[in-house]
Design a protein that fits this description.
Length: about 525
């Protein structure tokens, strides 16, 4: 556990030190669960968005984009169910005055049981060595079986309490399981009550309820209310999708773990409109496609599906793609089969017909929807966590040292290439280095740096994940060749100066990821 904590703390420190993520309004001691992206952070985030946008919109004939406003008519949120049902169960500890999500406290007990079972497995693995059969061990070891039974009972009861909005049973569970406040150890709890996660504000000069509008808690509704506008203006036939990237806001009760759970965050969502009856087939299709998208960037061992135990009010099937963050497997993306819930609800409340006329069958119907929804910030965190490594390296003199290296896929790296002159005080070397830079910057994000020794400059570029560094030296002045150094292998190669742009562009092309 403490190893995990250290890894996570180091990652947060690295994000700050190298200009990826800063606490919002830090000079005023920060604003909780709100973060700003620094110079390298914004580049990486933009690249992740580009990877998503290109793979969804550009690579699919039947998916188009949208950029809807954050403010929407307040009836939107009535129809979508968010006014009545977008709640989390809140509980306070009377002694520590700390506020928690009741379901998360109970999930914490389940996580402890899982850790106990995993410990038994690790111990047995050590004892039995090569011949160890984990599946058989889990199916027969009494201690594991007892904990599994407890775990399952809690899971089923929690799912029922959440689905039925049974706040009293959540409180009973917290008491029966002996859950103590993680801060103070106190078991002196208030009742559990529902807390709506939507932020609201006033529109124009209308005071009171009349002018109340919400900051959108998901981007999806901007897509639903524009279904007809988009379908008609792009002459799309079913099935087709609408994709959008944009900010969403949730007044999270507990917002910890850095950019994992924020109150202002960004979503990348796609609603895929299909003929009723084909929805579950499309759901399976998108489940597989989205996992493949993640696998192009992250190892399969760090990704898994997790089926929802309690479905949201709009879904008939839902799965999370979970990523192994430094604090364990957690939701990275949700794929939901949302039925015709949203379009039907908007049709009813607005009084406007929201249907698709199928020319093949001459019928009109409300399409069903399969949604893929990923948090851009969580994707950023997963990418950083997966890429950051502390590596031992052996120098030319045989001495070992360590380097922090961000092994980002070259296509998403914030800076693709940095150019150094061997000596910063030699005008000829500087001029040549600037020449290489000026050629590069038309096609990729490139930098120039002459603020230290070459060794130090390499370390800095490794830490921000720059895949290629080019050094201009005295030989360049004679034959117009430079050395190009690759981040992961640290191998250097001499290449003609006029080839650098082509080499870097090809090796960092987004095509490598998309294909
Ligand atoms: N339109 C469906 C929807 O919003 P969700 O599971 O509530 O579904 C989708 O959110 C994704 O948005 C999540 O998988 C997660 O990546 C991201 N997300 C949700 N709440 C977040 C928060 N408070 N901070 C950062 N990302 C969040």
């Amino acid at each position: 556990m403490s190893n995990q904590n250290d890894t996570f703390k180091n990652l947060i420190a690295h994000c700050k030190e190298y200009g990826f993520v800063f606490q919002s309004s830090e000079i005023y001691d920060g604003l909780s669960a709100t973060y700003d992206y620094g110079p390298y952070g914004v580049e990486l985030k933009n690249n992740l968005k580009e990877y998503w946008w290109k793979s969804m919109v550009q690579m699919n004939d039947n998916i188009v984009g949208l950029d809807a406003a954050i403010f929407m008519h307040p009836k939107t949120w009535k129809a979508s169910g968010h006014v009545d049902a977008f709640n989390d169960p809140l509980i306070d500890n009377k002694d520590s005055k700390k506020r928690y999500r009741a379901d998360q406290l109970i999930e914490g007990v389940m996580e402890k049981l899982e850790n106990k079972m995993n410990k038994e497995v690790t111990k047995a693995k050590k004892r039995f060595g090569e011949s160890f059969d984990e599946v058989q061990f889990r199916a027969t070891n009494q201690r594991v079986l007892n904990n599994q039974k407890k775990h399952e009972a809690i899971r089923v009861r929690l799912a029922a309490a959440m689905t039925n909005e049974d706040m009293a049973d959540l409180k009973n569970m917290i008491e029966e399981l002996g859950v103590a406040c993680p801060e103070s150890g106190s078991k002196n709890w208030t009742e559990v009550r529902q807390f709506n996660l939507m932020f609201n504000t006033q529109l124009g000069a209308i005071a009171g309820e009349g002018g109340k509008i919400y900051l959108r808690p998901e981007t999806a509704q901007g897509i639903f209310v524009n279904f007809l506008n988009v379908q008609k203006s792009t002459r799309q036939s079913l099935p087709f999708g609408i994709a959008q990237i944009g900010k969403a806001f949730r007044n999270e009760i507990v917002a910890r773990q850095f950019i994992f759970r924020m109150r202002e965050f960004e979503q990348m969502e796609m609603q895929f409109f299909v003929k009723p009856g084909t929805d579950l087939e499309w759901y399976e299709n998108w489940k597989a496609k989205r996992l493949a998208w993640h696998k192009a960037l992250h190892p399969a061992s760090k990704l898994r599906y997790h089926d929802h135990d309690n479905l949201a009010h709009y879904a008939n099937a839902a799965v999370d793609i979970e990523f192994q963050f430094p604090f364990g497997f957690r939701e990275l993306e949700g794929i939901h089969s949302r039925t015709d819930f949203d379009l039907k609800a908007h049709q009813e409340l607005s009084g406007k017909k929201i249907q698709f006329f199928d020319p093949a069958t001459k019928e009109s119907y409300v399409p069903f929807v399969v949604e893929t929804s990923i948090g851009c910030d969580r994707m950023f965190l997963a990418t950083m966590a997966n890429a950051l490594e502390k590596e031992e390296i052996v120098g030319g003199n045989g001495k070992t040292s360590t380097r922090m290296v961000l092994k980002l896929h070259p296509a998403i790296a914030p800076v693709k290439c940095t150019v150094f002159p061997l000596k910063s005080n030699n005008p000829e070397l500087v001029a040549k280095a600037k020449e290489v830079l000026n050629d590069l910057r038309f096609s990729v994000n490139a930098q120039y740096d002459d603020t230290g020794s070459i060794g130090k400059l390499y370390r800095r570029q490794d830490a921000i994940g720059t895949p290629y560094c080019v050094t201009v030296d005295f030989q360049t002045l004679e034959d117009n060749t430079v050395t190009i150094r690759e981040r992961d292998s640290m191998k250097q190669e001499r290449v003609p100066m006029d080839q650098v742009e082509k080499i870097v562009r090809e090796k960092t092309d987004m095509r490598l990821l998309l294909s």
